[in-house]
Amino acid sequence: MPADPLYPPRPAAPPAELPLLRYLWAFRHNGIKAWPHAAYEDDVRVRTMFGRKILLANTPDAIRHVLVDNHAAYGRTRATIRIVRPIVGRGLLLSEGDEWRHQRRTLAPAFAPRSLGLLARHVATVADETVARLDRQQGRPVDLAAEMQGVALEVAGRSMFSLEMGPFGAAMRPMLLRYGETLARPRFLDFLMPVDMPTPHDLLRRRFERRWFTLMERLMAAREAAPSAEGSARDLYDLMREARDPETGAPFTAAQLRDQVSTMITAGHETTAETMFWALYLLAQSPEWQEALAEEAAGVDLSPDHAADALDALPKTRAVVQETLRLYPPGWVMVRAALEADTVADVAIHPQDAILIAPWVLHRHVKLWNDPNRFDPTRFLPGAAPVDRFAYLPFGIGPRVCIGAQFALNEATLVLARLVGAYQIRLMDSAPVLPVGIITLLPDRRLPFSLERRRPRSVPTQRAA
Ligand code: HEM
Q1: Is the pLDDT of residue 462 over 50?
Q2: What is the end-to-end Cα distance of the chain in Å, rounded?
Q3: Which of 183, 260, 381, 407 is deepest in the core (most CB within 10 A)?
Q4: Residue-range definition of the domain harbouring residue 242
Q5: Ligand 1 pocket test: which of 402, 410, 411 has the largest number of ligand atoms within 8 Å of its C-beta?
């Protein structure tokens, strides 16, 4: 077990600003190691790369300016478009301007509270199946990272497509993993070349993109072939297919629908899986919180019919999820390219300069958090001092805020409650697990957990008078 389990291990920050080559190397191998110690204390840090400024914004005011007040002056960077487009196409994540507005307006109802109720049922069903499977493996070490990836993919598949993801997951996971290990790592030319001038890596990415979208089309074909329930929409796919732009009445074209499907699966499942994994990793080192959550879970009905109602009765579990997202934000950096001249934190910004808003740094910034590296879910319990909403950005903020934020929070809360309610979870080895930032924030190694079935808790009885 690590020295002080309430201070989970993290990679050492470099003592000083890295020279350019090592800075780029860090982004290719583990981006959270790109920033020096001082980044966690300074309001803003500026460096240049190929004649362009890169500004790391750490103050709520600067972040509000870039992501909210003047958001139209910023877009996705060349490197982001190159790396992310092959897995999300022209769906919501990468679209800009009028195209983005059309997509966001059209998709919004699919993520409204009514749809989140549908989701809770799917989550609870997958969580029950996971517990049943883990029960059959009693006594054997469990790879909870792989388990959580399976859970998140299955939830995404069922809530979006009402399809079991087994065969598709078996094809998708290795593809995404391989992409993350190779083509998703930024190269020099990704920053330098305009997006419409393909680099050698872009050609490989396009090949990947063709294979990936063929798989997405197979998945959609399987869904279309499945018998449909009469009446109201039954899953996110129905909701997206039936969605109409509120202003023009236009539906998505077949290609747009495929790109949205791909966006929702990729943007949604890995991030949520990591959140659940890191939460379990933290809880395995904090028996007190684990017990508190088990007790909370014992008092609620987490079955598929009642899961949606259970959410309000799980404040501690939700606080653990929120604290996990603070310490291990899967979206560890948001990058914007300036489209026009601007001023951010008194620094003159020119077109093509980059603004970095890094939840990894922000959430551990000494001016914004008390004892920032400590795992302390009480920060998010009802009644705690409110958290500055520009200092805590696991889902971003402003018009481009994550459309699946509630979906993810609900899913992670329900799965965590179900698992911790069922098992006492322990680490089986004491070597630290460190986060690695490439597209999201993965653990640097797989580690075994032991799961021991909890005895059913006795229901408190009224004392005889
Ligand atoms: C814990 C899980 C998740 C985390 C940490 C996360 C994080 C983020 C962040 C930080 C952004 C903003 C990016 C930016 O401003 O540059 C974002 C956007 C987005 N997320 Fe999530 N996300 C999660 C789950 C999901 C889920 C479950 C879905 C879909 C079902 C989803 C779909 C999207 C989409 C489509 C966008 C782009 C929104 C837009 O540009 O209008 N995410 N997410």
Answers
A1: no
A2: 47
A3: 260
A4: 73-337+393-453
A5: 402
